[in-house]
Amino acid sequence: MPDGSSGRVLAHLSRVEQIKRFRVLPVDWEPGGEELTPTMKLKRKPISSRYEAEIESLYSWAEVKRRRYPSSGMCSPTWRSIVRRTHS
Description:
Layout: H1 5-10, H2 44-50, H3 52-68, H4 77-87
Protein backbone atom coordinates (compact mmCIF):
# COMPACT_ATOMS: atom_id res chain seq x y z
CA MET A 1 0.00 0.00 0.00
CA PRO A 2 1.42 3.39 -0.95
CA ASP A 3 0.98 4.91 2.51
CA GLY A 4 3.09 2.21 4.21
CA SER A 5 0.17 0.72 6.13
CA SER A 6 0.83 -2.73 4.67
CA GLY A 7 3.83 -3.13 6.98
CA ARG A 8 1.67 -2.47 10.02
CA VAL A 9 -1.03 -4.83 8.80
CA LEU A 10 1.39 -7.67 8.01
CA ALA A 11 3.55 -7.24 11.12
CA HIS A 12 1.52 -9.69 13.21
CA LEU A 13 1.55 -12.41 10.53
CA SER A 14 4.26 -15.03 10.13
CA ARG A 15 6.44 -14.76 7.02
CA VAL A 16 4.59 -17.52 5.14
CA GLU A 17 1.25 -15.77 5.78
CA GLN A 18 2.40 -12.40 4.48
CA ILE A 19 1.47 -11.10 1.04
CA LYS A 20 4.64 -10.85 -1.03
CA ARG A 21 3.36 -9.70 -4.42
CA PHE A 22 0.00 -8.59 -5.75
CA ARG A 23 -1.49 -7.05 -8.86
CA VAL A 24 -4.38 -4.61 -9.07
CA LEU A 25 -6.53 -5.43 -12.08
CA PRO A 26 -8.06 -2.65 -14.20
CA VAL A 27 -11.55 -4.23 -14.02
CA ASP A 28 -14.27 -4.49 -11.40
CA TRP A 29 -15.62 -7.93 -10.56
CA GLU A 30 -19.40 -7.75 -10.29
CA PRO A 31 -21.56 -10.37 -8.53
CA GLY A 32 -22.99 -12.71 -11.17
CA GLY A 33 -20.27 -11.76 -13.64
CA GLU A 34 -17.49 -13.88 -15.13
CA GLU A 35 -15.37 -13.98 -11.97
CA LEU A 36 -17.94 -14.00 -9.12
CA THR A 37 -21.13 -15.90 -8.40
CA PRO A 38 -24.21 -13.94 -7.30
CA THR A 39 -23.23 -14.81 -3.69
CA MET A 40 -19.71 -13.35 -4.18
CA LYS A 41 -17.85 -16.69 -4.37
CA LEU A 42 -14.88 -16.89 -6.72
CA LYS A 43 -15.27 -18.77 -9.99
CA ARG A 44 -11.82 -20.33 -9.93
CA LYS A 45 -11.67 -21.89 -13.42
CA PRO A 46 -12.72 -18.73 -15.31
CA ILE A 47 -10.35 -16.66 -13.19
CA SER A 48 -7.40 -18.99 -13.72
CA SER A 49 -7.95 -19.14 -17.48
CA ARG A 50 -8.68 -15.43 -17.97
CA TYR A 51 -5.83 -14.19 -15.76
CA GLU A 52 -3.29 -16.95 -16.41
CA ALA A 53 -0.50 -14.57 -17.45
CA GLU A 54 -0.99 -12.36 -14.39
CA ILE A 55 -1.01 -15.37 -12.04
CA GLU A 56 2.13 -16.78 -13.65
CA SER A 57 3.95 -13.46 -13.32
CA LEU A 58 3.21 -13.38 -9.58
CA TYR A 59 4.80 -16.79 -9.04
CA SER A 60 7.58 -16.76 -11.66
CA TRP A 61 10.06 -15.06 -9.29
CA ALA A 62 9.75 -17.99 -6.85
CA GLU A 63 10.68 -20.49 -9.56
CA VAL A 64 13.87 -18.56 -10.32
CA LYS A 65 14.73 -18.43 -6.62
CA ARG A 66 14.09 -22.19 -6.29
CA ARG A 67 16.57 -22.95 -9.06
CA ARG A 68 19.20 -20.78 -7.38
CA TYR A 69 18.47 -21.80 -3.80
CA PRO A 70 16.94 -25.30 -3.75
CA SER A 71 16.64 -25.36 0.05
CA SER A 72 14.64 -22.13 0.08
CA GLY A 73 11.28 -22.23 1.83
CA MET A 74 9.73 -20.60 -1.25
CA CYS A 75 9.17 -24.05 -2.75
CA SER A 76 7.34 -25.58 0.14
CA PRO A 77 4.35 -27.88 -0.53
CA THR A 78 2.10 -24.95 0.33
CA TRP A 79 3.52 -22.89 -2.54
CA ARG A 80 3.14 -25.79 -4.97
CA SER A 81 -0.44 -26.43 -3.91
CA ILE A 82 -1.30 -22.75 -4.51
CA VAL A 83 0.09 -22.94 -8.04
CA ARG A 84 -1.78 -26.18 -8.75
CA ARG A 85 -5.05 -24.74 -7.44
CA THR A 86 -4.77 -21.64 -9.59
CA HIS A 87 -4.20 -23.77 -12.69
CA SER A 88 -6.84 -26.44 -12.05
